[in-house]
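Dear colleagues,

For the upcoming journal club I promised to circulate an example of a predicted protein-ligand complex. I picked one with S-adenosylmethionine because it came up in last month's discussion. The inputs are reproduced below in full, followed by the predicted structure.
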Amino acid sequence: MMAEVDLLRHYPRDRRKLAAPRSKDPANRAAALKFGEEYFDGRREQGYGGYRYDGRWVPIARDIVAHFGLRAGHHVLDVGCAKGFLVKDLMLVCPGLRVYGLDISEYALRSAEPEARGRLVRGTADQLPFRAGAFDVVLCINVIHNLDRPRCLTALREIERLAPGRGYVRVDAYRNEAEREIFLEWVLTAVTFLTPEAWRALLVEAGYTGDYSWTILEPDPDVNDFGRNGERPAVAGEQRP
Ligand SMILES: C[S@@+](CC[C@H](N)C(=O)[O-])C[C@H]1O[C@@H](n2cnc3c(N)ncnc32)[C@H](O)[C@@H]1O
């Protein structure tokens, strides 16, 4: 019940260079927050800088299947599924698994992987259009920090409602001032970012009993001066847009 598990440990690190800390420019944040083409497939300063399928979710999908003991016939929902990469790869590594996705971005759904089409719906994490207990597992990776605190709580309750004790939530977090600074320079869309302790308190307040992990931006020991040379910081376990 409610364990910290890094199911994204196989996510590759990203080292693309940026001209300047991008979050300082309000135009970059405004563009990203539309969760449209600019965010997914526009310039790196405004989002992913090209969100394309490359199979990187396959090992993560395997870890998810193993962790939750998923098999053919089980139902999984990926909240904030974007273009459905994880939806596709879960079905690839576990044939017969019934995987669905939900995202707020019309652009992402429109540009989704063919294998995921027909399985994705448009909606918001804090109002999931499914009945209680409808899923064996609900995943929500790097999504709810985009909501303010009250909506974060609602989203967590929604995940719990659909799959009691069988959620997996990952959110942006920082452990110290240096990591917080990196966040402020790098993160475009998160509005709720907290320390792991504060997040745990929020999970408890929501009555969430599933598993969780953090996306933490760390100073890169090989670079170590983000903000001066414009290099992207290292990401613990996961790539951030
Ligand atoms: C950082 S991306 C993560 C995508 C994917 N889960 C991953 O880990 O690669 C955030 C995603 O959340 C979606 N999103 C933002 N706000 C949302 C909301 N209120 N409800 C559902 N999805 C949302 C965005 O469109 C985007 O696809």
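Two points we might discuss: The longest strand covers residues 211-218. The chain is about 30% helix and 15% strand.

See you all on Thursday,
B. R.
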